Structures are given as C-alpha cells and as structure tokens.
Amino acid sequence: MPTSQKPPEKMMFQLNLRRRGISDQAVLRAMEEIPRDQFVAAADRADAWRDSALGIACGQTISQPFVVAYMTEQLQLRRHHRVLEIGTGSGYQAAILSRLCRQVLTIERYRTLADSARARLEKLRCDNVEVMLGDGFDIPAGAGDFDRIIVTAAMEQIPDALAQRLEPEGVLIAPVGPHQGTQTLVRLVRTGGGFERKDLVDVRFVPALPGIAREL
Ligand code: SAH
C-alpha cells in the first residue's frame, strides 16, 4: 500500500517507533506487517496502534510496541536463528520474531493464553512458531539450545540453567528485577569464557512465576 493510503494510526505507529530510535528496517517492517489489533481483546481494538501495553486474558499484558521493537532489535536476529521466548501472552512478540528468524519456540504457563495465541499465529500463517504450554523455568532438555532467548516476564535474576541454553555467541534479553516495580532490561551474550552482561533500559513487566498455572 502506498504510504499515503495507510491509515493514520498505523503511520503514527511507525513514526513513533522511528522517533524513539528503532532503526533496523527488518524490525520496522515486521512491526508494520503484524496486525497488533488481532492480538488484543475486541474491546481494545481501537487502542491497538497506540504505544501502550494493554490487558489480555488471565490478568496478563501485551507489551508496549516500542518495548517489543526495542527488545527485538537488541536480539540482532539472523534468518537462520532458532529463538526461545518465555511468556507467550497474546503471541504478538512471537509473531514479530517469526518474521525475522528460522524458528520460534514460545512457552506460556496459562493454557488459555497458549491456546488462543496458537490459533492467532496459525491464522496469520506464522508457521515457524511452536507454542508450548509449560514453565520457562524448566525448559525440556529435548527442546535443545537456542541462538537467541527472549524473556517477556520479569525475573528476579536470570537462572544459570536458562543462560546455559544459549548457543556460543548467543544473546539473551530479559527484564531483571523485583516483581513489583521497575526492572532493568538485561542483555547477556555468551562468550568464550562465560557471559557478558549489559544493562539497557528500565522496563515494567508482569512477573515470571514458576510452574504451569493451576487456573486456566
Ligand atoms: N510476549 C507477550 C507478553 C508477555 S506477558 C506478548 O507479546 O503478548 C508475560 C507472559 O509470561 C504472561 O502471559 C505470563 O503468563 C507468562 N509467564 C510468566 N511466567 C512464566 C513462566 N514461568 N513460563 C512461561 N510463561 C510465563
């Protein structure tokens, strides 16, 4: 669609991402192509192109678009990468990732969220995403290791067992800090000798909780 025919809210959406410093063209394109309005509750559709987090089922949230774009950019994805996401939520972040890498495994502890995210991703033909009901603190050994890991729920610290699932030169991004209040987005890179850590920006995420949720 020529730029002039784009609905104004989508133009503002792109403009805002650029203005806030997102410059990776592939990330901007993925953000443009994935319809965020299909990942929010029907009542919130009109607000889907605003740069804010919104409530979804099970008391969880779909992240703010800027944060999704920023975390994706910081992952420095390549086409051949296999990516793990902890915290599927609506499936929006997974859909963005799916456009930029070979394969995405995304894990969610609520069955309701995992099921609805899977249905949305199938409808959008994000065929390289697998949605798994499970606990991100206990990734099955059979799932293998990953080139990139993105955690979209707040962890008090990054479990060593999770960092160990990174391939050499792999990158992990996670919000780290207290469950209530502000966390810091941390970027870990697996190097020859261990891990290099860089603190990026302050963020607010819902907590990462252990175990599969007992409620649906
Ligand atoms: N990435 C999502 C938003 C994530 S909200 C999106 O694009 O919409 C954080 C999600 O992490 C919630 O759905 C929550 O249920 C899930 N979560 C929290 N702890 C978890 C754990 N241990 N394992 C898997 N998912 C978890």
Short overview:
By secondary structure, the chain is an alpha/beta fold. It contains six helices and nine strands, in the order H-H-E-E-H-E-H-E-H-E-E-H-E-E-E. Helices cover 26% and strands 25% of the residues.
Please describe what this structure looks like.
With 216 residues, the protein is an alpha/beta fold. 26% of the residues lie in helices and 25% in strands. A 7-stranded mixed beta sheet has the order 5-4-3-6-7-8-9, with helices on one face. The chain has a two-stranded antiparallel ribbon with strand order 1-2. The protein has 6 helices and 9 strands; from the N terminus they run ααββαβαβαββαβββ. S-adenosyl-L-homocysteine (SAH) binds at residues 60-63, 86-87, 89-90, 92-93, 107-110, 113, 135-137, 152-153, 206, 208-210.
Structural class: alpha/beta
Strand order of the largest sheet: 5-4-3-6-7-8-9
- What is the rounded distance between the termini? 40 Å
Name the CATH superfamily assignment: Vaccinia Virus protein VP39
CATH fold label: Rossmann fold
Attached small molecules: S-adenosyl-L-homocysteine
Describe the main β-sheet briefly: 7 strands, mixed
User: H/E series, N to C?
Assistant: HHEEHEHEHEEHEEE
Mean pLDDT: 96
**Strand fraction:** 25-35%
Helicity, as a percent range: 25-40%
